[in-house]
Amino acid sequence: MRELTIDQYHTVLPLLDSIQNKAVYALSVIDQTQQGRVFVNEESALTSVLITSNGGFYCLAGDEEDELFIADVVQFMNEESNHHSFFALGVFTTAWANKIDSYHIQHSKKITRTYYLFNQEKFMESYRELEATVQKPFEYLSLNEVIAQEYRDKFYPYYQLVWSSTEQFCEYGIGHFIKKNDQLISVCTSPYVGGGYAEIDIITVEEYKRQGLASQLGVFFIKECLAKNFIPNWSCHADNLASNELAQKLGFEKVGEHPMYWYHA
């Protein structure tokens, strides 16, 4: 397979037509909002593509029968120097899953991801009037460089991979935060923004779960998306019951489940 230059990234968009919002991380790379790499088959006609993001989320799309391309993909996946200590390879057809299953990708575990589409009408019926307020002893903060730096450095260093700098995160990302006693306890942020979508990522410290904090931050996140003409997006592990329940509560509708090859040391 061959690697495209940045100015060629947009040429693979037709291969992603059937995937759409299921790989926002891939769209973010194509948009050059976030860093990554794009590989295609050797022939002049583009029929297969592997898109990798710096955050470790990758996707395969296009022709599942190009054996030379598939062999190159497997070789790429099995070279540890190609990854920032983590990867999650998404496939979106049974044919791609069957093909990958016939090879060995080291340090990977096959899981199932659930994908959703946002229903704005359903969301607005429930949350149109909700104001962005948080009751004491909690403190609400929206994204700024100070909180972004703290988040990336201390709370969730993964965001040092997905966003190359605090400034980039603040310019292109979305973030809503709740603190207690000056400590972050619940966050709703965008790990990936691309193709008009903003992916939702919610984390709440264990002792503060089941207090409605995640729901409230999710509402703030979605309202900011709508104000900026982004479509909020949700995907999660199929066995993450709390995440799946919250997605549906916030107006998302399940559109399918697909395999993902998740890094497993």
From TrEMBL:
Q: Show where the N-acetyltransferase domain sits.
A: 138-265
Q: Which InterPro entries does the entry link to?
A: Acyl_CoA_acyltransferase (IPR016181), GNAT_acetyltra_YdfB-like (IPR027365), GNAT_dom (IPR000182)
Q: Which SUPFAM superfamilies match?
A: Acyl-CoA N-acyltransferases (Nat)
Identify this protein by name. GNAT family N-acetyltransferase
**Which species?**
Paenibacillus taichungensis
